[in-house]
Specification:
This protein has 14 helices and 17 strands. With 458 residues, the chain is an alpha+beta fold. Its EC number is 3.6.1.5.
């Protein structure tokens, strides 16, 4: 097989944790590198996102605690672009994962490789491509894992995740890292995850609230699933809004605009915005961007006023879950964090920060008053691609939280990219939840694994 040196060059991304902020945190060995016990287990999870592919390798001890792999608490490697960028060449798509696969296999002891599960979850990028194209890509990935990997592979482990799974996995990951699994539902945290293509919300409901849930959501997935985690039953609300991730929402906003320009685009910019194979005209109005006019565009794009057939909806006619104590403490991840860090209203050196939705509004009002040229000076950490959209992104994030999800502008929320875990920081991302699920569901294959703690029983 031919190996494209360019693809290898992309591995320099290895040193940069995901997100635009480029935060590098010291992750020191928790237990001197850890002693390999007989009951440890590994899991390899690929996150095939819309903007890139990433692999996470986790190592658990017999108590289902994470332990170090070398000096780090997880192995994390990323490449760009994502699988959906190779929509006409499924083999190239699969090949883009080879360097990640090699890195992952390299850290797993040989004798454990045949029992180490390898999974791939594709998210919004492949969902948007449609079934035919995405199946071809997944087939090429399955062939690669089957023929070229020494790890334990099952074809059903390589899938497009259902939206609710993405949200549930992140909820499990976050509450696991915070040590909340086993607590009553009101002592867990809710999660919001703003990706490139979709945004997820997940939180635990009371048993009573769960009993009143509509049976089936718009996307035909259940809104609420029952999960047994660390011997405790949870009723988990989870929903993924396709087309409302940050990059997808720009396209929605540019499409929702009446007239030739958007009041969300910074003055002085006249260009086009490409998303998912389509090109949108992105030109500023002659008077520049405007916070209040951009709000109108964002509200329109979010379809706040769509008919709600339930007691309470967020936006687009989606059931809200009814709120409650499982949502009072919200951890808000991915692009919410990256935008705040790039704009500079949180410190990009800290992996999490307590803010309020009104902080996004405040930052938006300032950004929307700037021209592109001024913003280039004011926001040195915003990348060139994002700069024309900095008013749009902040307004959208505020609108999504307050008008979309119904938060009070003054409610405290935690912006998060990594969670402190022992002496380390772990990425707040769904793959850890998927790892916990697959490791919990594995049948003990050796007597040593029999004592293995099953955290997540389904
Ligand atoms: C994958 O496995 C096939 C069959 O064993 C082999 O021909 C091919 O070279 C392998 N590819 C890589 C990238 O290792
Ligand atoms: C499970 O719950 C117990 C107490 O209820 C707690 O000590 C333990 O850390 C939890 N395990 C995990 C992996 O969260
Ligand atoms: C959901 O379906 C069950 C039976 O399948 C029914 O008893 C229940 O009333 C339904 N709930 C709602 C909210 O429609
Ligand atoms: C985009 O809109 C601007 C403002 O109306 C117009 O001048 C320009 O020609 C448009 N560009 C494209 C590619 O349609
Ligand atoms: C840009 O990032 C650097 C490094 O993280 C930081 O020290 C600086 O304060 C940031 N600047 C702004 C304006 O946020
Ligand atoms: C921003 O400033 C840099 C130099 O400081 C310049 O190279 C770049 O073209 C500017 N970008 C915009 C969009 O004005």
């Amino acid at each position: 097989m031919e190996r494209d040196p360019l693809r290898y060059a992309l591995l320099i991304l290895l040193l940069v944790p995901h997100g635009a902020g480029g935060i590098v945190l010291g992750r020191k060995a928790a237990a001197g590198g850890g002693v390999r016990g007989e009951t440890e287990t590994y899991a390899v999870i690929f996150d095939a996102g819309s903007t890139g592919s990433r692999v996470h390798v986790f190592r658990f001890d017999q108590n289902m605690d994470l332990v170090n792999i070398g000096d780090d608490i997880e192995l994390f490697v990323a490449v760009k672009p994502g699988l959906s960028s190779y929509d006409d060449d499924p083999q190239e798509a699969a090949n883009s994962l080879i360097p990640l696969l090699e890195e992952a296999e390299g850290v797993i002891p040989e004798e454990l490789q045949p029992t180490t599960p390898i999974r791939l979850g594709a998210t919004a990028g492949l969902r948007i491509l449609g079934e035919e194209k995405s199946e071809k890509i997944l087939k090429a990935v399955r062939d690669l894992f089957q023929t070229n990997s020494s790890l334990e592979y099952k074809s059903e482990w390589v899938t497009v995740l259902e939206g609710y799974q993405e949200g549930s996995y992140l909820w499990v990951a976050m509450n696991y890292l915070l040590g909340n699994l086993g607590n009553k539902y009101s002592d867990t945290v809710g999660v919001v995850d703003l990706g490139g293509g979709s945004v997820q919300m997940a939180y635990a409901l009371s048993k009573e609230a769960a009993a009143n849930a509509p049976n089936i959501s718009i996307g035909n997935n259940p809104y609420v699933t029952k999960q047994l985690l660390n011997e405790t039953n949870y009723y988990l609300y989870a929903y993924s809004y396709l087309h409302y991730g940050l990059f997808a929402a720009r396209a929605e906003i540019l499409e929702a605009v009446d007239g030739p320009y958007s009041y969300c685009v910074l003055g002085g910019y006249a260009g086009s915005y490409k998303y998912s194979g389509k090109v949108y005209n992105a030109s500023a109005s002659p008077s520049g961007s405007s916070y209040s006019k951009c709000r109108v565009e964002a509200i329109k794009a979010l379809k706040i006023n769509e008919i709600c057939t339930y007691q309470d909806c967020t936006f687009g006619g989606v059931w809200s879950g009814g709120g409650g104590d499982g949502q009072k403490n919200l951890y808000v991840a991915s692009s919410f964090y990256y935008t705040a860090a790039e704009v500079g209203f949180i410190d990009s050196e800290t992996p999490n920060a307590l803010v309020r939705p009104s902080d996004f509004k405040k930052a938006a009002k300032i950004a929307c008053k700037s021209s592109l040229e001024e913003a280039n000076v004011t926001y040195p950490n915003v990348t060139e691609d994002n700069l024309p959209y900095i008013c749009m992104d902040l307004v959208y994030e505020y609108t999504l939280l307050v008008d979309g999800f119904g938060l009070k502008p003054t409610q405290e929320i935690t912006l998060v990219t990594k969670v402190e875990y022992g002496d380390s920081y772990v990425n707040a991302a769904w793959p850890l939840g998927s790892a916990i699920e697959v490791v919990s569901s594995q049948s003990p294959q050796s007597p040593a694994l029999k004592s293995f703690r099953r955290l997540w029983i389904q």
